[in-house]
Amino acid sequence: MNPHRTQKIAFSLLFLATFLVVALVGAIVVIIVQKGLPAMTWQFISDVPREGMRAGGIFPAIIGTLLLVGGAIVFALPIGLLAAIYLSEYARDGLLTRIIKLAIVNLAGVPSVVYGLFGLALFVVFFKFGVSIVSGSLTLGIMILPLIITASREALESVPRSFREVSLSLGASKWQTIQHIVLPNAIPGILTGTILGLGRAAGETAPILFTVAAFYLPQLPRSIFDQVMALPYHLYVISTQVPNVDEKIRYGTALVLLALVLFMNLIAIIIRYKFRMKKKW
Amino acid sequence: MRKFREFIIEKLVLLCGIASIFFVVLIFLFLLKEGFAVFKTVHPFAFLGGKSWYPISEPPRLGILPLILGSILVTVGAAIISIPIGVGCAIYIAEIAPKKTKEILKAGIELLAAIPSVVLGFIGMVTIVPLAKMLFHLPTGLTALSGSIMLAFMAMPTIVSIAEDALYSVPKTYKEGALAMGATHWQAIWRVMLRAASSGILAAVMLGIGRVIGETMAVMMITGNAAVIPHSFFAPVRTLTATIAAEMGEAVIGSEHYFALFAIGIVLFVISFGINVTADLFLHKRQ
């Protein structure tokens, strides 16, 4: 066959494959927005679920998710950032560094439900935190650790070597250089990674199934050792466990969750974009 | 004083650096601690090869073969769909799309990666499931096939982004050489670029499959959750991940059922560990 015709056919097929995927992504977002919007009332956002979750709102689930995500980041950001500093500023190429990198890759690949088991065994049972916000947050925190390390490391490594050399040659110590020169220049990248981690933590269901999520709890938690409802688990519950829930409520919950996650991603993208425009090197 | 501070900070940073190793080991140890107890009553081979999973019957029958086969069936289906489409997508984005389109397509794929799996599961329930039921005249649309389609879609971001990286890092001279010899663009891609990027593409496929095996919520919501040995793509199945997620809530802590679910966790951990280490080796081979 004529090679140019082969090329035409091949390229059309490749285009079709790509178009199929991206169009489906678009369709999913459009469907959820379109069918979820009618449910968006102030009552839906601010009220507790009523009548066995068949009416009312999703306020406790929203607050629960925000608390969990906040807790996760408080735990994961300091450790992740310091780990990234180690890898980019202190580590030498060697066996230890290789093993650390491999561990990060593995941590990122552990199935989310296995994180749930781990959180149950370590935090709920072994440390006796019970099914609580602490247990859930810590589990989510460990889960997003690899994401934060990887993003922060990339941000730190993209600061030019000459910046460090100038600072060191002026008599600053290594830590002073990191603190005053490297970190400030890497902050946008670190922030981007952190926000993406937040989004990831907000959407995950399996790690919180046995560590924190409450099936139905129409009140706000009083301490970090209480259970909470969470948006992703609530969506799972009302779409599979509770019969006869109005479709509007299901789509509405999906929309709020999706909007929360995409909003975080959007902020990350904006920060990345602005930073690229401002970059001095 | 300053030296002392530097010393302390260096140690603290090192400590956080090795935290990842610590956590991987900790996860494995705690899975072992809780999961190993099941092997006191069930022989490991009977556990892995046992054909019936009735964890709450008396005495419980804890054979996870139906679950392993369920996972394999759904994963194979997802791989068949996602590998050609995903690699095709990567080729199109890396090689063919004009620059502006490329950015839009990449954003679309990233968007897919950001959508929570429970939302995708929900969408699958209201679209794929009724569609499968209608098209194939089945009693229920909650089948292995529905799960495979959804999972293929969910593996896409992993496969596309890593395969695209692999294609992108093939030296420009390879392609230029091929074009200079009179090859068409497609011949250069097919005969030169794909071969040169093969180890990276293989890693992409493996990590995509790893994602599929580990996926929990979406698969639990649309595969029908029948813990029996599957005989066709058109029947409900139950995967390893879904079993843990669906049953742990009811398992009594310290019961045999509880231990068995942790033992399934060990199996999943070992599989994902194997996949990630191998994929990492392939990615490093390239450099």
Largest beta-sheet details of chain A:
2 strands, antiparallel
Shape type of chain A = globular
Q: What number of domains of chain A?
A: 1
CATH topology of chain B, which one?
MetI-like fold
User: Average pLDDT of chain B, to the nearest integer?
Assistant: 92
Indicate the CATH class of chain A. Mainly Alpha
Number of domains of chain B: 1
Note poorly predicted spans of chain B.
Answer: none
Low-pLDDT ranges of chain A: none
Gap between N and C termini of chain B, in Å? 43 Å
How far is the N terminus from the C terminus of chain A? 50 Å
Helix content of chain B: over 70%
CATH homologous superfamily classification of chain B: MetI-like
CATH third-tier fold name of chain A: MetI-like fold
Describe what you observe in this structure.
- The complex is a heterodimer of chains A (281) and B (287).
- With 281 residues, chain A is mainly α.
- Chain A has a single domain (57-278), classed as MetI-like fold (Orthogonal Bundle).
- In chain A, 75% of the residues lie in helices and 1% in strands.
- Chain A has eleven helices and two strands, in the order H-H-E-E-H-H-H-H-H-H-H-H-H.
- Chain A has helices at residues 3-36, 42-46, 59-90, 95-109, 112-126, 133-157, 161-169, 174-203, 206-209, 231-241, 247-278; strands at 49-50, 55-56.
- Chain A has a two-stranded antiparallel sheet with strand order 1-2.
- Chain B is globular.
- Chain B has helices spanning 2-17, 19-35, 44-49, 65-96, 99-114, 117-126, 128-135, 144-168, 172-180, 185-196, 198-214, 217-222, 240-247, 256-286, and strands at 53-54, 61-62.
- The longest helix of chain B has 32 residues, at 65-96.
- Chain B has a two-stranded antiparallel ribbon.
- Chain B is 74% helix and 1% strand.
- Chain B has one domain (53-286): MetI-like fold, CATH 1.10.3720.
- The chains are: A mainly alpha (281), B mainly alpha (287).
- Chains A and B meet through helix 1, helix 3, helix 4, helix 5 and helix 6 of A and helix 1, helix 2, helix 4, helix 5 and helix 6 of B.
